[in-house]
Amino acid sequence: MAKKRLTKKQRARRILKLRILVLASLAAIAALVVLIVKSAGYDLINENDPVATIRLKNGDKVIVELYPDKAPGTVANFISLANAGFYDGQALSLSEDASYLRAGGDAGYDIRGEFALNGFENDVKHERGVLSMARLTLYDSASGSFFLCLKDMPYIDGAYAAFGRVVKGLDSLDKGQPVIESIRVDAKAFAGSFEKLAREP
Fold first, then answer.
1. Is 119 found in the same domain as 23?
2. Strand intervals (E) in the chain
3. Please, what is the average pLDDT of the chain?
4. 164 and 68: one domain?
């Protein structure tokens, strides 16, 4: 027995129902992701932002949200180095005035300084918990070193490339000079070539 052909109106209704079902499913998935993140004890500004997990030798864990929309090349560089194990085993050195912790080193290349003084729009403030890129005197001299603000540091806003913020575990960084066991980044929707983004002038 031949199947009855649908009219254009019936086909349009079916397509509409299917679209509504797909949208409802996507909304449900998004809500579930938010619920999982909330239950983990931290809030992200953007659910698609890359998330770095810093595991310390003492067993503590620090969660950092990265901001590729504010400093794309800096974030790309950090992801590339972190996931390659560049920071594993390093101590987070405390500054003399106890205003920040620093780790990293020379990665063998320099990246562009993504901050206002270097002609790059980046409005992330250097507040407690913010992750930023260390550099030498030259604006485009950052490489593999970063620092984590333990205090508000408004006097360097616009002069260094801030590119993330601690969303969980900040108190763990107040315990002297913790040692990094590993830093790994879930890049999520941040697509593209990390190496190209990090090194292009």
1. no
2. 51-56, 61-66, 93-94, 100-103, 130-133, 146-149, 162-168, 180-186
3. 83
4. yes
